[in-house]
Design goal:
By secondary structure, this protein is mainly α. The protein is built from 5 helices and 2 strands, in the order αββαααα. The protein has helices at residues 5-10, 39-49, 61-71, 79-92, 107-127; strands at residues 24-25, 30-31. Strands 1-2 form a two-stranded antiparallel ribbon. A hairpin with a 4-residue loop joins strand 1 and strand 2 (30-31). Helix 2 (39-49) runs antiparallel to helix 3. The longest helix has 21 residues, at 107-127. It is globular and about 45 Å long.
Length: 129
């Protein structure tokens, strides 16, 4: 699933209605990390804003994502999870200015992306039945 920044920022639900605007950094022609839309995207933002060399502020990102998946009735309608997915995808596309690209190789972020993406794809496939 590939979402544009516009699609992510306009997908709102009663649970989360935070602005998730991104801004192009003219010096690098990459985007700034969007503002969080809820706890999962906030945890990803905090993680990506730090250096991979520093101790982690968020200790179990995968656990937080798994709890959010269980608690969310419609993953594909949840702005926080859609934004989290886009933030993790954007990391692999090297979209984010001022984010250390070494995060791409981080095993927990890779697992977080896989966990979230798998749950969303499963929901999408069952919704089409």
């Amino acid at each position: 699933m590939t979402l544009t920044t516009h699609q992510v920022s306009t997908a709102t639900t009663p649970r989360h209605r935070a602005a998730s605007s991104t801004v192009l950094d003219p010096t690098t022609e990459r985007l700034t990390l969007p503002r969080a839309a809820g706890p999962v995207s906030a945890a990803i933002r905090v993680t990506l804003s730090a250096s991979p060399d520093q101790p982690r502020i968020i200790l179990s990102l995968v656990g937080q994502i798994e709890r959010a998946i269980i608690a969310t009735p419609e993953l594909l309608a949840d702005e926080d999870l859609l934004l989290a997915d886009r933030m993790l995808e954007g990391l692999h596309e090297d979209l984010w200015a001022e984010v250390d690209h070494r995060w791409v190789e981080d095993p927990e972020l890779q697992e977080a992306r896989s966990t979230l993406r798998t749950a969303m794809l499963e929901e999408r496939s069952t919704a089409g039945r």
